[in-house]
Amino acid sequence: MSSTVLTISGLRVEIAGRRLIDGLDLALASGEITALVGRSGSGKSLTARAVAGLLPEGAAARGQALLDRGRGRSEDLLGLSPYRLRRLRGAAIGYVFQESQAALNPTVTVGGHLRETLKAHDVPRSHRRNRGLAALRQAGLPAPEQLWSAYPFELSGGQAQRVALALATALDPRLLIADEVTSALDPVTQAGVLDILRTGARAGQRAVLLITHDLAVAGRWADRLAVLDGGRIVESGPSCQVLRDPAHPFTAELVRASGVATDGGDRARADVPPGMAGERA
Ligand SMILES: Nc1ncnc2c1ncn2[C@@H]1O[C@H](COP(=O)(O)OP(=O)(O)OP(=O)(O)O)[C@@H](O)[C@H]1O
């Protein structure tokens, strides 16, 4: 049974007096991928960064982002100290960026990155290699021993993205934020990475926030869509339904511009599974 992992209420983000996110509400459920879609500059990345405590210098976030920690406990991510947020990132919140190769330290091997992450979260030294190898395997790298000693420059773009995914999920976070993670990948590698995200969500009772400007990707892989325009969510609901029958003119424009077909066929074509009709936020 799914439960709410993250509840964002009234999120506002300002930079230099400009309000860039303006009263955003969004709930993410376990076992599901929620795609945050919208045109460039609509505030997708700022939303994700606010939740993860990774806003740029000078940015201020207000509102609430309640992360469910199980057993009736929850924490407001917007009210935590930088130290507490650092502890939560990795352990409870995983974050993967588009530029994974650039995010990896060029002088540290794949194994070194994993060891560091696991060490930072108090995994005993004797467990780190096996945990790291398991995370790489789960991220879709079938022979992780061969990559353990590789440096980032020796990886393909797809391999680097999977290593970044392994790093973000090595501690089995309840919330995974994937910010344009497949934009730079070829379609086959892209599908492989998105499949891993979905499997991880289902198996780990994890909530995934998928940030993408690609409506076809969102429609095919996300359970739910939230459409952002000018720092506000203008529409949200089951992806197939939003794509098939957009309620807001901006969503309709986005669907038209993307060329995503909305009749019959696969999920990108917006099949509405039985029982989902009418369930619109
Ligand atoms: N460090 C910053 N300083 C000033 N303005 C910023 C900063 N970062 C983002 N912005 C502004 O905030 C708004 C939202 O940016 P954001 O990066 O969240 O958009 P996005 O929807 O993720 O776009 P894209 O799809 O192009 O990545 C934009 O107007 C952007 O110019």
Automatic annotation (TrEMBL):
* Pfam families listed in its UniProt record: ABC_tran
The residues covered by the ABC transporter domain are 6-255
Q: Does the keyword Cell inner membrane apply?
A: yes
Record keywords: Cell inner membrane included?
Answer: yes
The topology of this chain with respect to the membrane is: Peripheral membrane protein
Any one GO molecular function term: ATP binding
- What CDD domains does the annotation carry? ABC_NikE_OppD_transporters (cd03257)
Task: Show the GO cellular component annotation of the record.
Answer: plasma membrane
Which controlled-vocabulary keywords does the entry list?
ATP-binding, Cell inner membrane, Cell membrane, Membrane, Nucleotide-binding, Translocase, Transport
Superkingdom of the source species? Bacteria
Cellular location(s): Cell membrane
* SUPFAM superfamilies the UniProt entry points to: P-loop containing nucleoside triphosphate hydrolases
Which residues, by range, are in coiled-coil regions? none
Give the protein family.
Belongs to the ABC transporter superfamily.
Q: What is this protein called?
A: ABC transporter ATP-binding protein
Q: Which organism does this record belong to?
A: Nocardiopsis gilva YIM 90087
